[in-house]
């Protein structure tokens, strides 16, 4: 019905002129209230210590200091946050009884400016009794390991054994069984803009207003209200229109919202806190480090019969919501793009004296596919099959879609063999293999890696309940959870231009641009006729607990809400125009921005014409029609259902596909890895703006490269962070970026209005796998196999040294 | 990441800077390009009573030739070194090493004197200073003195400069025409401090190696001049066997430490590998062969 004139085009981003000229509105710009005071946070220097007391007298005596809030105040004035497991973990917005990781907040100082606040923070004396430290998730489960939470009784925050099909039979019937242990590193996202919060308490209204760069999900709003003892309609979250990147990390700002909110309530002044880079690396959020044991059962011909996953996910000092998503977010796509039906997942979520974890681009999928795709290569090697062939033999076929996975996922659309074939063809895979033979003969280490992944988008909020036992979920008092919704409002002004109002929290994704494209197509307008407002405000926007901009959801659910609102509005315009023309609505159509009689005879009414009449002359509306030209739509997926008693859940709503090929050469002397070719093919359904999609893929690929080669939050034996600055925590830069060859295969989603799916996380989940496979392949003549990331030069050199015959230099 | 309170002075002459330095009795820091000092201040790892900003002393920024040397005012920006025709003609090794110093914005602020006085042993300039047998000129209330690299560098981030002294000039002897040279470096990313860097210069006469110079970055608490390795080359020439023997020797001469970026063993190994690579590249560039 709508022409796709703008959707599908690389329309220039409307955001960029303001961003590139320094006119963005970030949390640290344009103070929304006057007389702001600044907070500095006192943090535990110990990774594990009992807190014996605080002496804040010296800090309070400093001129310009208006208050100090300690863990004692927090324990008295707030409640602990709800956690995603049944274990009694008491997680407050600061340490109260003891600090459980180095950098955990223990107090806040509020002062006239940040310099003074940091001076005063140094003057806050906290008395600690250091306790033994545990950092390794397997060691933490030993009976004699230091215990973090006495009330829990062990360091195990949660454990689930999920069984799908009959894995024992699959392993019994297999011709070949392989087992391997993997380690995946703890790394984050380092957005250019760190966390930032401004809180103002209005005692007369009893309203706490918090401006922050929180990205959602807005389930954290009611959680925070409960912690602060505020009714939800007295806690207002406002998010400025620009956020300087997030990649999942800013989900976990919410404990600071409670802390700075409490500081404002306690001191009576408006309080601002901007996290500095040291704080960000030390204590914001990261993905989990994981130790994984994998087993695969297969037939001689390479057909995978079943797999066993055993995971130890390290969530740090406390399990903070939405963890344990680290284990369960990919529940529906545990099997990835493969056909096998029998699977056992044994997931332990462990607390240690490291910083806390949460969503990080690809949320748990980087871990999942690193393990699975390494296993596929090991299996190919064992069976003497080409790694491409073994994948082809196990891929889901086009006619199997929509496909219900054994774990409950519903893959909405796809043509995996076609996308994989395209990647192999672009990379000239056969030619690369010939090149490899040639270079190997010359004593060089040239390798080719493959990785395939199902790219889930739009989390179903219900997946988190996978962490709970079915018996617990079966109790009558248990309330099932499900859903993934987004809303949009479009209004047309009296001269026929449109304003679209979103409840999203974009972090650079270009929602404004995308929405102008969609609305322009739906209503026959030009993109410049549409203004998009995307400042989230819980008091004025239509929102729900799943609102926010995370899990690659806007391209799928957000765009559907926008299209739905536009179509509602269009239906109203048609009905109104038909009334003006005195014909039945069936006899008219909306074409090129005007309502016309289908036969082509008679008058037509442009949007501008209809808008003027509707606003100026309400008498002209048909009887019973609501005045005004606006529509609000809330789009929700009906495929978002609660976890079933067999632990099956459709954990996301739309599922794309990624196929990648990488060629590398390893210098065996220095262990340097050179990426020679990198091809990535995506199927994210309809591509709304190819330029923006490419940007997402570049970013995702570089992020994955970070985890594969550079980034790791490393600690010494005492739990002190060793990578606390950008000199030591290395993030790949443009100089480290390979040439990235991108292509799309389009299998429109039947579930979204435009056929689009998310792809914001994209290659972040495949690059660790593809490069580990490529390097393993390069070093295969030496027998080196990569099972641990990041592949730092020292680690890789040690592997090469251990593998090659002893000789000097 | 806000520094504690400090006094700030921006003298316009060296004498004024020296007098301020004396006034604070060792409790002041000199601000050159600020690429290392500012983070130290913001992390509160350095808490001087005062900063004395040298950026407004024009007399401290120059590149000139005298007595066969190229002399650099301490406040000469690395970017100026990189594009200096004098450096290109007389000190191509320094020019090549400069491209390994950080990134463009860093080199635009960073200075040659600041880099050397900061004495980070992973930095490129201290290695070049050692390889080329340069000197630094130091001024203080007791007058002026010149120091050779082995007199200057004490250990990590520590020099023999007194608290009331300022490094004012860097002197590097011009490289003889036809000298072969190479700066080899391995870092985890482009622009990072070296895990290992090797500065090499060779002067070839017929089949002989008249002079060999080798110095390291990243291979210990100070830049290491690889004298024994040089001697092998000066004795045995620049054939494959001699280069391999020199590389082997280089690995034995260094005492690197482990840190989170590289183990000591790996650094020692890289010292061997990069010494051989630097020598082969230097040899290929050398005239008179």
Written description of the protein model:
The complex is a heterodimer of chains A (809) and B (289). Chain A is α+β, with helices and mostly antiparallel strands and 809 residues long. Chain A has 3 domains: 36-131 and 194-245 and 249-275, Aldehyde Oxidoreductase, domain 3 (Alpha-Beta Complex), CATH 3.90.1170.50; 289-463 and 642-803, Aldehyde oxidase/xanthine dehydrogenase, molybdopterin binding domain (Aldehyde Oxidoreductase, domain 4, 2-Layer Sandwich); 485-636, 2-Layer Sandwich (Aldehyde Oxidoreductase, domain 4), CATH 3.30.365.10. In chain A, 27% of the residues lie in helices and 24% in strands. Chain A has an 8-stranded mixed sheet. In chain A, strands 7-15-14-13-8 form a 5-stranded mixed sheet, sandwiched between helices. A 4-stranded mixed sheet of chain A has the order 18-27-28-29. The longest helix of chain A is centred in the C-terminal third of the chain and has 28 residues, at 554-581. Chain A is globular, with a radius of gyration of 28 Å. Chain A starts with 15 loop residues before the first helix and ends in a 6-residue tail after the last helix. The model of chain A has no long low-confidence stretch (mean pLDDT 96). Chain B is globular. Chain B contains 12 helices and 13 strands. In chain B, a hairpin with a 2-residue loop joins strand 6 and strand 7. Chain B has 289 residues and is an alpha+beta fold. The mean pLDDT of chain B is 96. In chain B, helix 10 (227-236) packs antiparallel against helix 11 and helix 11 (240-253) packs antiparallel against helix 12. Chain B has 3 domains: 7-56, Uridine Diphospho-n-acetylenolpyruvylglucosamine Reductase, domain 2 (2-Layer Sandwich); 58-173, Uridine Diphospho-n-acetylenolpyruvylglucosamine Reductase, domain 3, CATH 3.30.465.10; 180-285, Enolase-like, domain 1 (2-Layer Sandwich). Chain A binds chain B through residues 114-115, 118-119, 122, 276-278, 669-672, 710, 714, 722-723, 725, 727-728, 730, 732-733, 735-736, 792-794, 797-798, 808-809, and chain B through 1-5, 39, 43-44, 186, 188-193, 195, 244, 247-248, 251, 260-263, 266, 269-270, 272-274, 276.
